[in-house]
């Protein structure tokens, strides 16, 4: 099988980051040898990645767990024997060092159930077959931007000897299974739009006095609070077939299908009650009492990335405006 051309053209190098840094190392997992070779050839055409193919999800998981040489990005098929790509994604997220690595589902499965399950399992992006070269190039470019940001963050942590800020737009720092981060959230809404998979209601959850709480507590306490809020929101919204994402700054966005909810007052009260009980029961962390606010839902029909971000920003702004009252 043809190997990836690490010394690709300057155009390809521009797609995959700084020339002084190693090429993005990509694991591709698909049980179909023809598709596996085709994907590798396509990646060679559009990027300068170092590609490692796996014809079995179990072989891929073993290699990832062994950790001899880490992968920066992973492309996973869904329909595979013994372990499907969604379960593989979930298991990869449990491996140290892979909580934030970009994982792209590359699959023929277009139904919304698969999309929802994949993102809840930790997928960063979702690309459907047959493979479009321009789409593949765009997704790899986005993945590489995440990889570069993670490398920069790691270098910053090493220099400052400090934890990553609790305010950043990343969900894995909270340690909550099924919680999306901001990049995955945007990709999720875009995939719903591309696949014409229906509308969702979008509401934001904001922590009142977040700046003060950050000033008065260390990062571990703040992250523990965010985790309790995430779990409380999930408990209340789970019956509504929801997807939850952390957007930084003490804010979350929750997406759900129930269009009957027009006002947030009652559901906000339910979340606050669950949160109060959780904080009262968490004696080990000694968390301060806090309150949250939830914006009224926005009916999202998504669109391109800019439109998606505007919808999310609008929901978050509503929640923060309400929190300031």
Topology (SSEs and partners):
Elements: H1 10-15, E1 25-29, H2 33-46, E2 50-54, H3 57-66, E3 73-76, H4 85-94, E4 103-107, H5 112-121, E5 125-128, H6 133-160, H7 182-194, E6 200-207, H8 210-216, H9 219-237, E7 243-248, E8 251-256, H10 265-281, E9 292-294, E10 298-300, H11 305-323
Parallel strand pairs: 1-2, 1-3, 3-4, 4-5
Antiparallel strand pairs: 6-8, 6-9, 6-10, 7-8
Helix pairs in contact: 2-6, 3-4, 4-5, 5-7, 7-11, 9-10
Any key phrases for this structure?
alpha/beta, 325 residues, five-stranded antiparallel sheet, Rossmann fold, single chain, 2 domains
Describe the structure in your own words.
The chain is α/β, with parallel strands linked by helices and 325 residues long. It has two domains: 10-160, Response regulator (Rossmann fold), CATH 3.40.50.2300; 172-323, 2-Layer Sandwich (Alpha-Beta Plaits), CATH 3.30.70.270. It contains eleven helices and ten strands. The protein has helices at 10-15, 33-46, 57-66, 85-94, 112-121, 133-160, 182-194, 210-216, 219-237, 265-281, 305-323, and strands at residues 25-29, 50-54, 73-76, 103-107, 125-128, 200-207, 243-248, 251-256, 292-294, 298-300. β3, α4 and β4 (103-107) form a beta-alpha-beta unit. α7 crosses α11 (305-323). The model is unreliable at 1-14 and 160-164 (pLDDT under 50).
């Amino acid at each position: 099988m043809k190997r990836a051309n690490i010394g690709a053209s300057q155009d390809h190098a521009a797609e995959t980051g700084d020339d002084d840094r190693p090429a993005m190392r990509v694991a591709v997992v698909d049980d179909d040898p023809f598709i596996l070779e085709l994907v590798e050839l396509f990646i060679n055409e559009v990027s300068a990645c170092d590609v490692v193919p796996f014809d079995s999800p179990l072989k891929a998981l073993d290699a990832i767990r062994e950790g001899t040489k880490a992968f920066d990005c992973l492309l996973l098929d869904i329909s595979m024997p013994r372990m499907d790509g969604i379960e593989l994604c979930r298991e990869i997220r449990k491996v140290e060092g892979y909580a934030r690595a970009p994982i792209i589902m590359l699959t023929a499965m277009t139904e919304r159930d698969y999309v929802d399950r994949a993102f809840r399992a930790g997928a960063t992006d979702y690309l459907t077959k047959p493979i479009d070269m321009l789409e593949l190039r765009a997704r790899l470019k986005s993945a590489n931007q995440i990889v570069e940001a993670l490398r920069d963050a790691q270098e910053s942590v090493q220099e400052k000897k400090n934890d990553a800020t609790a305010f950043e737009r990343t969900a894995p720092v909270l340690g909550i299974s099924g919680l999306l981060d901001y990049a995955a959230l945007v990709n999720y809404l875009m995939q719903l739009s591309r696949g014409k998979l229906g509308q969702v209601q979008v509401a934001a959850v904001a922590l009142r006095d977040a700046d003060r709480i950050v000033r008065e507590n260390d990062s571990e306490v703040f992250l523990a609070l965010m985790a309790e809020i995430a779990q409380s929101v999930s408990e209340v919204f789970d019956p509504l077939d929801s997807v939850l994402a952390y957007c930084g700054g003490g804010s979350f966005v929750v997406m759900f299908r129930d269009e009957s909810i027009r006002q947030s007052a009652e559901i906000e009260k339910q979340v606050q009650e669950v949160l109060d009980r959780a904080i009262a029961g968490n004696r080990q962390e000694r968390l301060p009492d806090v309150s949250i606010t939830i914006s009224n839902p926005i009916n999202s029909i998504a669109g391109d990335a800019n439109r998606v971000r505007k919808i999310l920003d609008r929901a978050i702004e509503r929640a923060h405006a309400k929190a300031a009252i």
